[in-house]
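note to self — DONT lose this again. spent like an hour looking for the file last time. sequence + predicted structure for the chain T wanted, 205 res
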Amino acid sequence: MPASLTDYNRGIYNCPNLTTITVASGNAHFSVEGGNRLLYTADDGTKTLYAWPTAPAETTVPDGINTLKGTFWGNQTLTTVTLPESVTCIAQSAFAACPVLQTINLEHVTTIEKEGFYGDTSLKSATLSAHIESLEHRAFRDCTALETVCIAAENPPTLYSPSSKTTPFQGCTALTRIEVPAASVAAYQAAEGWSTLADKIVGYE
């Protein structure tokens, strides 16, 4: 990749044999760790991991990464991901088309952007912490095995959608329960975007 590269959209789709990525010397923002982890460091010091083509089936993301964008897009063998506290944003297509992904911790994630988990057909549940602030449209689209979503946030996360018909859970045909704090059920059922999912929203103590 040239020294002039300043931006990179999404990631490297399903290239399990891509063992080496090279960034030309003099690039102010992009660098490579571990041979093929493509890293972007912004001027403010925040770090985005754009690609990791040879990530193992059970992967631990290195501490210090703040955002994942297109990182594991199309990974056909990824089953389990452990995120450090530093990861707060699951950006576009970070885990899209990962058909055997089953387990990921999202305890410190505040934002899941569009298509973050699009088409992850083995993901049966998702637990979002009290820190979650926003979910974009198609965040979990076509996660056809997804049955339960548990959200610890008392205030309904903002849903960003280009139309009222598009939710983060579009195409999640097995989804029957969205569990939220019992005292927040009415707020979720009335909130913009969430109201279309009111019949699935239930409370837990």
